[in-house]
Design brief:
The protein is of the alpha+beta class. It folds into three domains: 239 residues, BirA Bifunctional Protein, domain 2 (2-Layer Sandwich); 123 residues, YbaK/aminoacyl-tRNA synthetase-associated domain (YbaK protein, Alpha-Beta Complex), CATH 3.90.960; 95 residues, Anticodon-binding domain (Rossmann fold), CATH 3.40.50.800. It is built from 14 helices and 31 strands. The longest helix is centred in the N-terminal third of the chain and has 21 residues. The chain is globular, with a radius of gyration of 29 Å. The chain binds adenosine-5'-triphosphate and magnesium ion (MG). The site of adenosine-5'-triphosphate has 16 residues, from strand 8, strand 21, strand 24 and helix 10.
């Protein structure tokens, strides 16, 4: 393609609304434009990247025997009502009515629709297994659309669904997907981890996420370099480091106006891990006091699994329920349910005494108070791996894909059954598997850029090579570049030729910004000697080769 015929509106300035690197660079390099919050237009270069990723997705899905279909974006409400998700999902779902007043919604995902299809079409065990997939638009009214195409309100998803007769079948389909996902993300040039994850609104038994490490990520993963344990912090287990057990005897200490762990820890010159943090929350079954060590964070999701939905108590509720102001709560003598992290079983602590402006030193868990013991702390760096005890690392990451074992969560309510060999009706066992191509593109940028622009992994770059003839007024240059362009194109290489009559500086700047992995530079002086330069965008290394061998050398690199 000729640059002059392709719409590539590059920007010199950093757009003020952009935060993440991928957002800034995709705008600056002319890949996308924002229509409104979370709604993006893909310009020619942007679309080429997405198409490259989609091609990889199709190849790897087809390779595991998945069959491509396409389902509507507009859904009748009834199907979603049958699984209960019409009510369970809140504002994230776009809802509307058709002209007859019938409730409809825009598809956030397609479990309901595909299960409806399976309920109509799958009859017997002979029809199974099946894997069906699509690359289709999803709409979600995200609470915080941000960071460019990483989190948008309209986005493409490759979603596939597996249908099996039993758990063993599901296990195979799940493994097929895990393997395909490894190939997909590797081929896309991403650094990634497969981590244990919380199934969330998809329901079902267990799930894994594919996480591309990046500071732009909204997720955090706990990783063990020794045994490979990898889990989203949303459910990661960890062993907190042990503290020295002091030989304190119980004493009350006057701590005027010192409320938080931080304040009291500074006042007493004692590290936060020698404190007990007492947090009052309100669950549907009443108040619960949650206890974690002073250096730890309370893990809302882990606590939810034990006490159900809950929220932090307001100041006046604390006073009313515990009879003490927040800041001086201690774990002793409460009539309400107390849930404590098990790491508190070891050691002797400082905490509130349920008396204003006093704390107590020498509190012995199990003796001075009792509790239900459950892991309710957030994993943090410094903790040890729950499997092998080696140090854990916490890293920010972008979720680029996930796989869920759904079981019968959708097949039972939607009556997607099959007849077994004895003619009995059995619910189909399902799995659900998603990948966002735009997230892959953005994550690839977040992991591959420098101060001048994008450095695309070869497999998903919009073009394989960019040719930069530096002087389009020079007849010799034009003759050579046209021949080279034709030559490479005939070999099936995707070439972008900067045929604009622009200064060399501008061409170099734009080429670095756009990020095509290989540049061929045709300068007048080199050409006179029969030479051209091949530049590697990533390393910036250049080699001079003869005009005759350039095509061969470039092909080798691709
Ligand atoms: P997140 O936790 O980031 O909101 P999710 O768990 O809602 O993601 P799924 O519903 O499982 O994501 O969607 C599967 C894949 O679709 C994700 O792994 C991601 O690649 C992509 N995806 C999800 N939401 C968005 C979005 N708002 N914008 C772009 N891609 C998205
Ligand atoms: Mg989401």
């Amino acid at each position: 393609m000729r640059f002059s015929k392709l719409f590539i509106p590059t920007l010199r300035e950093t757009p003020s609304e952009a935060e993440s690197v991928s957002h800034i660079l995709m705008l600056r390099a002319g890949y996308v434009r924002q229509l409104a919050a979370g709604l993006y237009i893909y310009l020619p270069l942007g679309l080429r990247v997405i198409e490259k990723i989609n091609k990889i997705l199709r190849e790897e899905m087809n390779a595991i025997g998945a069959q491509e279909i396409t389902m509507p974006v507009l859904h009748p409400a009834e199907v979603w009502q049958e699984t209960g998700r019409w009510d369970a999902i809140g504002d994230e779902m776009f809802r509307l009515k058709d002209r007859t007043g019938r409730d409809m919604c825009l598809g956030m995902t397609h479990e309901e629709i595909i299960t409806w299809l399976a309920s109509k079409e799958i009859r017997s065990y002979r029809d199974l297994p099946q894997i069906w997939y699509q690359i289709q638009t999803k709409l979600r009214d995200e609470a915080r659309p941000k960071s460019g195409v990483l989190r948008t309100r309209e986005f493409l998803m490759k979603d596939s669904y597996s249908f099996d007769i039993d758990e063993d079948g599901l296990e195979k389909s799940y493994q097929f997907h895990a393997d395909a996902y490894h190939k997909i993300f590797s081929r896309c040039g991403l650094k990634f981890y497969m981590v244990e994850s919380d199934p969330g609104m998809m329901g079902g038994a267990t799930a894994h996420e594919f996480m591309a490490p990046s500071p732009a990520g909204e997720d955090e993963v706990a990783l063990c370099d020794k045994c490979g344990y990898a889990a989203n912090v949303e459910l990661a287990l960890s062993i907190p480091f042990e503290i020295e057990t002091k030989n304190w005897v119980f004493e009350e200490i006057h701590t005027p106006e010192k409320r938080t762990v931080q304040e009291v820890s500074r006042f007493l010159n004692l590290k936060p891990e020698y404190f007990i943090k007492s947090i009052l929350v309100i669950s549907n079954n009443g108040p619960v006091l949650a206890l974690v060590r002073g250096d730890q964070g309370l893990h809302e999701k882990k606590l939810s699994k034990i006490i159900g939905e809950h929220r932090p108590a307001h100041k006046d509720e604390v006073k009313e329920i515990l009879g003490i102001e927040a800041g001086f709560i201690g774990p002793m003598n409460h009539k309400i349910r107390v849930v404590s992290d098990p790491c508190l079983k070891q050691g002797i602590y400082v905490s509130g005494t349920n008396k204003p402006h006093y704390h107590a030193k020498g509190i012995k868990p199990g003796k001075d108070f009792d509790a239900e013991w459950h892991d309710i702390h957030m994993a943090k760096s410094g903790d040890s791996c729950p499997k092998c005890n080696a140090p854990l690392r916490i890293e920010k990451a972008i979720e680029v894909g996930n796989i869920f074992r759904l079981g019968t969560k959708y097949s039972i309510p939607l009556k997607a059954n099959y007849l077994d060999e004895n003619g009995r009706e059995i619910p189909i066992i399902m799995g659900s598997y998603g990948i966002g191509p735009a997230r892959i593109a953005a994550a690839a940028i977040e992991q591959n850029y420098d101060k001048d622009g994008i450095i695309w992994p070869k497999s998903i770059a919009p073009f394989d090579v960019e040719i930069l003839p530096l002087n389009m007024k020079d007849k010799n240059t034009v003759d050579i570049v046209e021949k080279l362009y034709q030559d490479l194109t005939e070999k099936g290489i995707e070439v972008l030729m900067d045929d604009r009559d622009e200064r060399a500086g501008i061409k170099f700047k734009d080429a670095d910004l756009i990020g095509i992995p290989i540049h061929i530079i045709l300068g007048e002086k080199n050409l006179k000697e029969g030479l051209v330069e091949i530049k590697d965008r990533r390393t910036r290394e250049t080699v001079r080769v003869t005009i005759q061998e350039v095509s061969e050398k470039v092909t080798e690199r691709i």
